[in-house]
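Propose amino acids for all 193 sites.
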């Protein structure tokens, strides 16, 4: 399977970077063809400019500034997102990726005001995330990143597509042992992906 991995950890020596490496290694060990889209390393510009917004609905003109990213998304049969959760949301670079690349004509079409997905070629979805908050605190605020993955993105590809959601909560109080266990879980789940 062709897997696009979206990575948005800015620090190469971080635990998030270790999760990214483990995800890539495990997917490759399982025989998947992996496109590692490391948004920071690639210098992705997350800003939706005024011009981009003005042509947002004008397909294919709206894709010109992000054409290589559009092609990579269209190539994929599966999507895995590896990211920290900051302030109960995605880092700006990842949010900007969705705003700039998931465009009308690319990921959806509007027909009589109704959204129709154009991502049916993506059959599987995964997420590997780290939270500073504990699970209860994330639950209290509604855990927006989890809902985006398991509801919105899943609905954009296939409403009943399999989703692997892996989260290491309470990173502010993590230990070598909790991080080791989570890395092992990521290894297992991505090898079965």
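Proposal:
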């Amino acid at each position: 399977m062709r897997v696009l991995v979206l990575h948005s950890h800015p620090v190469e020596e971080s635990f998030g970077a270790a999760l990214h490496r483990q995800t890539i290694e495990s997917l490759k060990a399982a025989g998947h063809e992996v496109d590692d889209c490391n948004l920071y390393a690639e210098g992705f510009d997350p800003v939706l400019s005024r011009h981009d917004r003005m042509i947002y609905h004008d397909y294919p003109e709206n894709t010109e500034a992000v054409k290589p990213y559009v092609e990579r998304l269209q190539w994929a049969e599966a999507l895995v997102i590896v990211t920290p959760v900051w302030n109960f949301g995605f880092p700006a670079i990842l949010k900007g990726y969705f705003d700039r690349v998931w465009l009308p004509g690319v990921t959806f079409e509007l027909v009589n005001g109704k959204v129709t997905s154009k991502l049916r070629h993506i059959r599987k979805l995964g997420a590997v995330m780290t939270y500073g908050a504990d699970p209860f605190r994330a639950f209290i605020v509604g855990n927006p990143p989890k809902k985006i993955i398991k509801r919105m993105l899943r609905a954009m590809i296939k409403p009943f597509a399999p989703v692997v959601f892996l989260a290491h909560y309470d990173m502010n109080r993590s230990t070598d042992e909790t991080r080791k266990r989570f890395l092992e879980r990521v290894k297992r789940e991505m090898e079965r992906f």
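The two ends are 10 Å apart (CA to CA). The domain at 2-191 is CATH 3.40.50.360 (Rossmann fold).
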